[in-house]
What does this fold into?
Amino acid sequence: MRITTKGQVTIPVNIRERFGLLPETEVEFVVEGDKVILKKARRRLRRGQRLVEHLKGRGTVPLTTDEILALTRAE
It folds into this structure.
């Protein structure tokens, strides 16, 4: 396998399928001694997802789902 002049290489299909490397998958390179390891990057949460994760379990007022919906719908 050769690296192109643009620094690209083709990952064989059997490896892509085995490790779930689909188009648009983020990857990272890790250097260990004289080796370079290609790894699937950890999925980064979007701002909204991070906020939800941060707030999860912090509620102090015990409300049912129906009560919360009534509050948000001004019923």
About this structure: DSSP finds three helices and two strands in the chain. The first strand starts at residue 27 and ends at 32. The chain has one domain: 13-72. The two ends are 65 Å apart (CA to CA).
